[in-house]
Amino acid sequence: LPEFLLCPHGGNFTAPSPVCTHLGCVVEPEGRTLVCPCHGSMYERSGRVVRGPAERALRRFPVVLEKDGTVVIDIRAGER
């Protein structure tokens, strides 16, 4: 499940999974990146791999901002 709700450039929300795609450790925010404390993989906030050993991007969950300001994260439709 998403642990982070981020709003990168352009105002579009993104909800990346906190689970590193290398061995499943939980990534942590560090400046403008998400870093795996187990083996040092580094991801952009969008989930794209910046530095391995991870080779796959973080799973991302669709986010919709409703007219009333409610943020909806679809945890069933996450990208793998």
Mean pLDDT: 85
Structural class: mainly beta
Quaternary structure annotation: single chain
Order of helices and strands: EEEEEEEE
> What is the helix tally?
0
Please report the distance between the alpha carbons of the first and last residues. Answer: 12 Å
Based on Cα principal axes, name the global outline: elongated
Beta-strand percentage range: 25-35%
- Can you list the strand order of the major beta sheet? 2-3-4-5
Instruction: Give a short account of the largest sheet.
Output: 4 strands, antiparallel
Short description:
This protein has 80 residues and is mostly beta strands.
How would you portray this structure in words?
- The structure is a single chain.
- The protein has 80 residues and is an all-beta fold.
- The protein has no helices and 8 strands.
- It has strands spanning 15-16, 28-30, 33-35, 42-44, 49-51, 60-61, 63-65, 71-73.
- The strands form 3 sheets. A 4-stranded antiparallel sheet has the order 2-3-4-5, with no helix packed on it. It has a two-stranded antiparallel ribbon with strand order 1-6.
- A hairpin with a 5-residue loop joins β7 and β8 (71-73).
